[in-house]
Amino acid sequence: MEKLITGIHHITALASNPQKNVDFYTGVLGLRLVKKTINFDSPDVYHFYFGDEVGTPGTILTFFPFEGATRGQKGVGETTFSAFSIPKASVSFWHDRLKKLDITVSTPISRFGDEVLRFEDHDGMGIELVATDVDSRKGWTYGPIPLEHSIRGFHSATLNLRSKELTSSLLTEAMDYVFIGEENNRFRYGTNGEPGDIVDIVINQPATRSIQSAGTVHHIAFRTANQASQLKVQQVLGDFGQQVTEVKDRNYFKSIYFREPGGILFEVATDEPGFAIDEEIGHLGENLKLPDWAEPKREVISKNLAAITLDPKKYD
Ligand code: ZN
């Protein structure tokens, strides 16, 4: 049967200073700011989307930067590490680059046969780079990172949980995931088992619950093709016993939300329509974009947001 869910769509996290956030993900990691908009549920806060050239689903890390926010704390009931995919031969390039920029980075960790670099952004947000030769996505560069070493998109995400049974059932019985394997208390699931569709459950017991603030993930979104498949997913999840929200219009995709049994907020977002609906691809992320309902309040909204400069070559 055709899968309704085909991997990770985006991951959304909380941050503090918006300028530092933009500088890190464009300047240090070389992602593109594909959309500068507002938090639709809290219009006085930015919503930044970082990804590949067009913000392809499976490449998009997004942030709500709350200036002055205190640091959150990693714990259970949280996506603790968001992992990007890099080419197999790029480990030393990235290790050297991060060290040169004074970012504390792990030595390569071995995981399911791949080498993994682990580090945090200035807010403590957990990022990993997984070096793999099975990723056919071409990556993206506008300068700071040579294309040959560029990030290809997400590889996977770590769901940090107290136990895995209920979440595992949800993934495999209602979300088109299959169990792939276990290594060192890390249980891997994938829709195809390819970079961009993998989630790992790591069990921490006993462990404290995460405290959500700057540097922690707010939710992880899984991708589905379109509104018709999304409605089917909503039905399947409801039949499985999940409390799922109504469909919300996020302008660049449609979303439904639910909390998985371990406490992590899950979303299922459509691949359609994408980020080119209100900006030319050549100019994505350059101007503040607002949904139609917020457009009449543009002046007030803009005044409440700190001005941001985009300088991807800052850390060249
Ligand atoms: Zn989302």
Features:
316 residues; alpha+beta; 2,3-Dihydroxybiphenyl 1,2-Dioxygenase, domain 1; eight-stranded mixed sheet; 5 helices; binds zinc ion
Helix percentage: 10-25%
Q: Per DSSP, what share of the residues sits in E-state strands of 2 or more residues?
A: 35-45%
Give the name of the CATH superfamily: 2,3-Dihydroxybiphenyl 1,2-Dioxygenase, domain 1
CATH class (first level) name = Alpha Beta
User: What order do the SSEs take from the amino end to the carboxyl end, as H and E?
Assistant: EHEEEEHEEEEHEEEEHEEEH
Termini separation: 47 Å
According to CATH, the fold-level topology is 2,3-Dihydroxybiphenyl 1,2-Dioxygenase, domain 1
Structure annotation, total helices? 5
SS class: alpha+beta
- Largest sheet, described in full? 8 strands, mixed
Rg over CA atoms = 18 Å
Overall pLDDT score: 96
Uncertain runs: none
Describe this structure as you would to a colleague.
It is a single chain. The model has no long low-confidence stretch (mean pLDDT 96). The longest helix is centred in the last third of the chain and has 14 residues, at 227-240. The chain has 316 residues and is an alpha+beta fold. The chain has a single domain (8-315), classed as 2,3-Dihydroxybiphenyl 1,2-Dioxygenase, domain 1, CATH 3.10.180.10. It contains 5 helices and 16 strands. The chain has helices spanning 18-28, 91-100, 165-174, 227-240, 298-303, and strands at 8-15, 32-39, 42-51, 60-65, 78-87, 109-111, 114-120, 126-132, 153-161, 178-183, 186-190, 198-203, 217-224, 248-249, 253-259, 265-273. Strand 11 (186-190) and strand 12 form a beta hairpin. The chain is globular, with a radius of gyration of 18 Å. An 8-stranded mixed sheet has the order 2-3-4-1-13-16-15-14. It starts with 7 loop residues before the first strand and ends in a 13-residue tail after the last helix. It binds zinc ion.
